[in-house]
Amino acid sequence: LQKIMKAVIFAGGVGTRLWPLSRKKSPKQFEKIIGNKSTLQLAVERLQPAFSTKDIYVCTGQNYVPIVQKQLVDVPPDHVIGEPEVRDVGPAVGLATVLLAREAPNEPFAILWSDHLVKKAELFRNILVSSGELVKNDPNKIVFVGQKPRFASVNLGWIDFDKVLSRINGFQFHALVDFQYRPDEKKAKNNFLSGHHAWNLGYFVTTPGYLWKQYQRFAPNLASGLQRIADAWHTAKFTQTLEEIYPTLEMISFDNAILEKLDVGDGLVVSENIEWGDVGAWEALKEALEEADDKNVTLGKVTLRDTKDSLVYNYTKQMVVTIDAEELLVINTDDVVLVCKKTSVPKIKKFVESLNGTEHEHLT
Question: Could you tell me which residues come within 8 angstroms of residue 72 by beta carbon, excluding any fewer than 6 positions away?
Fold first, then answer.
C-alpha cells in the first residue's frame, strides 16, 4: 500500500516502572529491551517501508535529543523535536500538531508511542495507511486504532464503538461511542465480552488541520502559546522561543485537554489484533514476550532451575541463577539488583521516588 502521510512518535517520559534499567539519564525507550534494539528503534522500523524516514518525526525531552539522533540516523535531525520541560501529553501533542499544521495541514498524520511492541507490523502499517486514506478523503475525521482485546484488562483504557461506517482495504471503521479510563473488573469483563470494545492504545490518525482546530476550540490558552512557538519554526529564534514559552504552558493530559471534548461524530474506530503489548513495566514486558502464560522470559547470562512464570534480565557479565523461584522479577544491572514479585511492580515507582533527596538519588 502506498501512502502520503506522516508519523509522529512520542519518546518522552522516564519510565520508572522499568527501573533499574530505565533511569532519568537514559529512559526505557532508548534501552535494549528486546534483542539488540530499543523500543524507539523498533517503533520506527515497523513503519517501514510504508513510511519514509523523511515522513517520521520524534518528540522527546531536550536532554534526549542526542540519544534519539544517534539511534535514528536516517530520521532528519530537525525532525527530532526536544521539549525543554515535561508538560504532560496535552502540550506535547499540541506542539507536534501545530508544527505539522504549518507544513501540511491536510496531509494525514499518525500519533504513535515509542515504548510499545506490535508483533504484527505489516497489519499495523496497513491499518495506518488505510486510516490515512479515510482521513485524506474526509480531513475532519479522527481514526482511533485499537487492539482487539485479548483479556479483560483493568490497567488499560477502552474504546466503545458501534456500527460500521466505512470499509477500506478490508478494514472496518466503526462509529466512536465513548472512551473509558481503566474500568473496574466487572466493567472490564463486560467490555471484553461485548464485541464492541477495543483497548485504547493512544494511537490515532487525523489531519494536523483538524486537530489544531480542536486545540484552538477546547484549549485556547495552550493554543496561543503553541502558535507563538510555531511561528518561530525554521527561524534562528526557534530554540529560544521554545525554551521561553513551552515551560509556561499548562500541564494537562491530552485526554483532558482534547479527547473528552471531541464531537463523537468526528471519531471512527478500527479494532484489529495487531498483537500489541505495552512494555512500560516489567510484568507487561513479560506478558508481551512470553510464549505461554506461565513461561519464563530471560535476557543475558541466566540459568534457571525449577523456576516458573518469572522474568530474569541480566545486563552484566556475572551469571544470574534462580532456583525454585516463582512469579519473580529479577533485574541485574551494574549498580542495582532488583528482586521482587511480579505483582509488586506498582511499588517500584514509589521506591524510586523515595530515593529523591537521599544519597542514592544518582540511581534514579
Answer: 40, 41, 44, 53, 56, 58, 80
Q: Are 278 and 150 in contact (CB under 8 A)?
A: no
Q: What is the pLDDT along the chain (364 residues), one digit of tens a residue?
A: 456 899 999 998 767 778 898 888 777 788 877 777 889 999 999 999 999 999 999 999 999 999 999 999 999 999 999 999 888 899 999 999 999 999 899 999 999 999 898 999 999 999 999 999 999 999 999 999 999 999 888 888 999 999 999 999 999 999 999 998 888 889 989 999 999 999 999 999 999 999 999 999 999 999 999 999 999 999 999 999 999 999 999 999 999 999 999 999 999 999 999 999 888 788 878 887 887 777 999 999 999 999 999 999 999 999 999 999 999 999 999 999 999 998 888 899 899 999 999 999 999 8
Per DSSP, the residues of 303-361 read EEES-BS-EEEE-SSS-EEEES-BSEEEEE-SS-EEEEEGGGHHHHHHHHHHTTTSTTG
Distance CA 362, CA 364 (A): 6
What span, in angstroms and rounded, lies between the C-alpha atoms of 175 and 143? 10
CB 257, CB 286: distance < 8 Å: no
Separation of alpha carbons 15 and 338, rounded Å? 15
Q: Are 175 and 266 in contact (CB under 8 A)?
A: no
Distance from C-alpha of 144 to C-alpha of 276, rounded to nearest angstrom: 14
**Alpha-carbon distance values, 15 to 11, 18, 28, 328 (Å):** 10, 6, 6, 20
Cell 523523511 sits at which residue? 54
Angle value at C-alpha 357, between 352 and 361, nearest 5 degrees: 50
**C-alpha distances in angstroms, 35 versus 30, 31, 141, 311, 335?**
13, 10, 38, 15, 22
* Residue type, position 332, single letter: N
